[in-house]
Design brief:
Length: 103
């Protein structure tokens, strides 16, 4: 979670390059640490979700939507395709918000 927290911090400071690097490293580091499928780890799903939130904040709507779609896909793998889980709802909400801001 350290890289995820760094990514959030860089986002708040406005450094998208450093934020992107943190979110890019986060799944790979976690996967190599736990030797497991990335989609099976709830912490790894946070990285594309947070990256999408940052992109949305800075006005990169299409990039944000790709991140939210990836997060949604990973969360459906983790919690079940037809599950009613708050994390799935969060991804859908953020995806809808990005679409809404597109007009």
């Amino acid at each position: 979670t350290l890289l995820n927290n760094f990514g959030l911090s860089w986002s708040k400071l406005g450094d998208q390059r450093k934020e992107k690097e943190c979110y890019k490293q986060f799944p790979e580091t976690t996967k190599s640490t736990y030797q497991s499928n990335v989609a099976d780890m709830p912490l790894v799903v946070v990285a594309p979700h947070n990256s999408g939130a940052s992109k949305n904040k800075f006005g990169y709507r299409m990039r944000a939507m790709r991140c939210f779609e990836l997060s949604l896909k990973m969360r459906k793998v983790l919690y079940g395709e037809n599950a009613t889980h708050p994390e799935i709802a969060s991804s859908l909400n953020n995806l809808g918000s990005a679409w809404s801001k597109l007009g």
